[in-house]
Each structure stands twice: as structure tokens, then as C-alpha cells.
Amino acid sequence: MARPKLRDTPDLSAYASPEVAIPVRVTRKAAQDSIAAKQGSIRITVTVPPENGKVNEAVSWILATAMQMAPRRCS
């Protein structure tokens, strides 16, 4: 899978704490990949179709990029 291309990624490094649950809303099959944080929740849109875990992989990569951490640490 190709890595999502992000523009204007917000700095979410404050959310990068171990064992912290973050409310996330995901929209799949969107026009573009994006991430936005508003009032304690995160909204992510991905362009990949919902098959074989591709959406989960894309969301993990986008979250890791925004939190400035390794993608394998986001699960």
C-alpha cells in the first residue's frame, strides 16, 4: 500500500502517551487523506477502500505521522 500523502498535518504529539485511548472518527473512500483535531477528538479521512485491513493500516500511519512516532507504535 502506498503511504497516504498529507498536507498541513497538525501536531498531535500531546496525544502520544502510552495506554491513552483517543476518540477517532474515520471516513473511508474519501477524496483525499486528511487529519483534523477538534475539541479532544480526531477526524481522519482516507482514500483506501475498506478491504483486507487497508483502512486500519492507513489510519495507523496517519496517526503516527501526526504524533511524530513510529507507525508500529500506533495500534
UniProtKB/TrEMBL annotation:
Q: Which Gene3D superfamilies match?
A: YggU-like
Q: Which N-terminal residues, if any, form the signal peptide?
A: none
Q: Which InterPro entries match?
A: DUF167 (IPR003746), YggU-like_sf (IPR036591)
Which Pfam families did the record assign? DUF167
Q: Which domain of life is it from?
A: Bacteria
The similarity comment for this entry is: Belongs to the UPF0235 family.
Q: What is this protein called?
A: Uncharacterized protein
Which organism encodes this protein? Ruegeria denitrificans
